[in-house]
Amino acid sequence: MATPSLLGRLRSLTRPAAWQTESEPGAHQYLYGLRGTLAISSILWIFFQTFVPTVVSGHTAGPPYQRVIRIVLSPVFWNETLISSFFLALSARSICIRFLNEPKPVAYAGSLIRRTIRLAITVALASGITMGIFKAIGTSYVDTFGEVLPNTSVSAPTTPNNALTALNAIFDMFWVVRSYYYQGLNSFWPSRTIWNVSLIYQQSWTVYFLMIILPYTRVSWHRQFLTIFALGSWWMNSWGYYCASALLLADYVVNPDLRKRLENGLNITADRKLPHAVLPMAMLIVGFAMKYLWTVFPQHIDAELVLHPYLDLAENTSRAEFAAADPYPRLDNYLVIFGVLLLVETSSRLRNALSAKWLVYIGRRSLSLFVAQSIVFWTAGIKLFLYLHTSRGVSTALANLAVFVTSTLTTLLFAELYYRTIDSPSQKIAGWAYSWLLR
Question: Residue 337: its pLDDT value, please?
Fold first, then answer.
């Protein structure tokens, strides 16, 4: 009788419910609010990157006022590396919560299996839809658009030769551990940003490896253990120090004793403490100062690599080759991201503000918005611009305004449709599949 009872308990734990999906428990809704904020920034980024490139980078010439806007606003509101790195940090911060709250094998295995199934479904269908659209409408208009605007950073996505090539590209996305920019699926994807999903998925395994150790070791040693791992990752300039820092922050938030230490501030002496807001504010100031410095002097944007001794000792790479080969964890982004996270975790007002229903609503659809924005802006958006500007003689500014309004609204509608028909059902399917595996 013991075995059926145990199976019954496992089935009740794994019955499709709120905790089986990727959604966070109610106490962590503000993390969705942060995702919602980043989703809005990503829409701004893809619009400017495509239609007003001077506002994003200095690679394309443009009016002086656009360069001023780039220097003043882009480091905060639509910086590509900051947005992608922030999503990675939020993923590392979120995927460990259930297991740290309930350190049982069923919670740990569930997190791994459900995430893999969900991403496999959503990425495969999104990629299939994207490839099908560009196969049907062609891609030559993208090159025409790049010449007309002009935008030297725009290049037409390639299309797979056959279904097997497409399937291999989707399959490889879950296995590559380097050269993320150059994977096949990324070349098929408009705006070439699908590598973000691949990187986030691969780095989640670092979190899974580390988080299983925490519940079974002394709480007082968690900080030392994760700090040593982070320092080793820092030496190698690996994303591991992002993952370790996010996991340590989650550990402090979930564990009552550690949470109290976090809110009490940093001990300077036995009688003096540094207020908890001082450290994150200092991180934000230094991080944004670095980002503004690289925006003003973009030729030195990779200068921070001098801080990583491993690159000087490695015989098979140089700093320039390392920067060009893959996205790498930037120190300026790290300081900004974890400065923000520390402020949020220690401020109930910020958590309440980020828990606003509309932000949480957008945050839950962040993956759907990512899929929708690339498709809509690079199909309907570009075609609308060409029609208004070249066929109807509308000025570039008015054409861009029309594209922004119509494409943003279309993106929101597309994302909602994708969320309801693919993303949300994929989470339920992942939960049901995991339940089936336990039967």
Answer: 98
The answer to whether 329 and 239 have CB atoms below 8 angstroms apart is yes
Q: Do the Cβ atoms of 106 and 14 come closer than 8 Å?
A: yes
Residue 316: Cβ-neighbour burial (10 angstroms; 0-12, 13-18, 19+) = exposed
pLDDT mean across residues, the chain: 89
Q: In whole angstroms, what is the distance from residue 15 CA to residue 8 CA? A: 10
What contacts 190, CB < 8 A, 6 or more positions away? 130, 134, 157, 374, 375, 377, 378, 379
Secondary structure (3-state) at 149: coil
Query: Which residue matches tokens 């400017």?
Result: 48
pLDDT tens for each residue of 265-301:
666 666 777 777 888 999 999 999 999 999 999 989 9
- The alpha-carbon radius of gyration of the chain (Å, integer) is 23
Among residues 258, 232, 260, the alpha carbon closest in space to that of 244 is found at 232
Residue carrying the six token digits 């949470």? 259
Put residue 158 in one of left, alpha, beta given phi > 0 → left and psi -120 to 50 → alpha.
beta
Neighbours of 376 (CB within 10 A): 24
Can you read off the two tokens belonging to residue 209?
């490896």
Strands 273-274 vs 266-267: parallel, antiparallel or unpaired? antiparallel
Domain ranges in the chain are 50-249+280-438
Percent of the chain topping pLDDT 70: 92
The secondary element (H helix, E strand) that includes residue 72 is: helix 64-77
In the beta sheet, which residues pair with residue 267?
273
Report the candidate in 100, 126, 241 with the shortest Cα–Cα distance to residue 193. 126
